[in-house]
Amino acid sequence: MPLPYSEIVMEHFKRPRNVGRLEDADAKATEGSPACGDMVTVYLKVDEATHRITDIKFESYGCASNIATGSIITELAKGKTIEEAKQLTWKDAAEALGGLPPVKVHCSVLAIDGLRGAIQNYEEKKGLIKEKVPTTLEEINRRLKRVVNPVVGLDIVRTKIVKEVTLEDGVVRVTIDMPADHLFANNIRDEIMEKLGTLWDIQRVEVEFVG
Ligand code: FES
């Protein structure tokens, strides 16, 4: 039986707005859903003086609901300040889409996580984080769970290729169980740098490949 999608969902799925990548993005984030393993990436251009989102795009590797939600949240967020955009919830997205089947709620949560992740990335890059909590290994692991292992399309923690993580005097060292000349080694290194390098109290991130 087909899922009871609203007409608006179908319209945004068939003609998604703001799809693609922003090459000169000021911030971006890739988030994965623990519920289904799908991913979404959100890119932002932000006016530095007003902190208003001037452009936003997304790439979805998720289902129809995720694509439709990505489409609607980019429309809702464009033109808003980052503070206003932060207040958007999956409920706003679902409402604007004329409702979503309950089994598909996590898909819109994923799109909102992508938007929030990109805003957080912007705030960290620009030193706008108000609450400066010292980074813990727990936070580092949480971020590593958002780094994708392209070999299998799941994160590097779940696929057990993170051998060791240490944090000492603002230096994070991550050891990855993969040959340094592997096709995806550079991708993984770049993503780790991107996820950890913006943390306010981290001076350096070192990624070592063994195997
Ligand atoms: Fe994964 Fe919808 S089922 S995003």
Describe this structure in words.
This protein is α+β, with helices and mostly antiparallel strands and 211 residues long. The chain is globular and about 50 Å long. It has 2 domains: 7-125, Sufe protein. Chain: A; 137-210, Fe-S cluster assembly (FSCA) (GMP Synthetase, Chain A, domain 3, 2-Layer Sandwich), CATH 3.30.300. The termini are far apart. The chain is built from 7 helices and 8 strands, in the order αβββαααααββββαβ. β1 (27-32) and β2 (39-46) form a beta hairpin. Strands 1-2-3 form a 3-stranded antiparallel β-sheet, covered by helices on one side. Strands 6-7-8 form a 3-stranded mixed β-sheet, covered by helices on one side. The protein has helices at 7-14, 64-77, 82-86, 90-96, 105-125, 137-144, 185-197; strands at residues 27-32, 39-46, 53-60, 148-149, 154-155, 162-168, 171-177, 204-210. The longest helix has 21 residues, at 105-125. The structure holds FE2/S2 (inorganic) cluster. FE2/S2 (inorganic) cluster binds at residues 33, 36, 38, 62-63, 65-66, 107, 110.
**Helix percentage range:** 25-40%
Q: List the secondary-structure elements in sequence, H or E.
A: HEEEHHHHHEEEEHE
Overall radius of gyration? 18 Å
Total domains, how many? Answer: 2
Task: Tell me, briefly, the overall form.
Answer: globular
Question: What is the level-2 CATH architecture name of the largest domain?
Answer: Alpha-Beta Complex
Q: What small molecules does the structure contain? A: FE2/S2 (inorganic) cluster
Count the E strands: 8
For the biggest sheet, the summary is: 3 strands, antiparallel
Q: What topology, given as strand order, has the largest sheet?
A: 1-2-3
What is the oligomer described by this structure? single chain
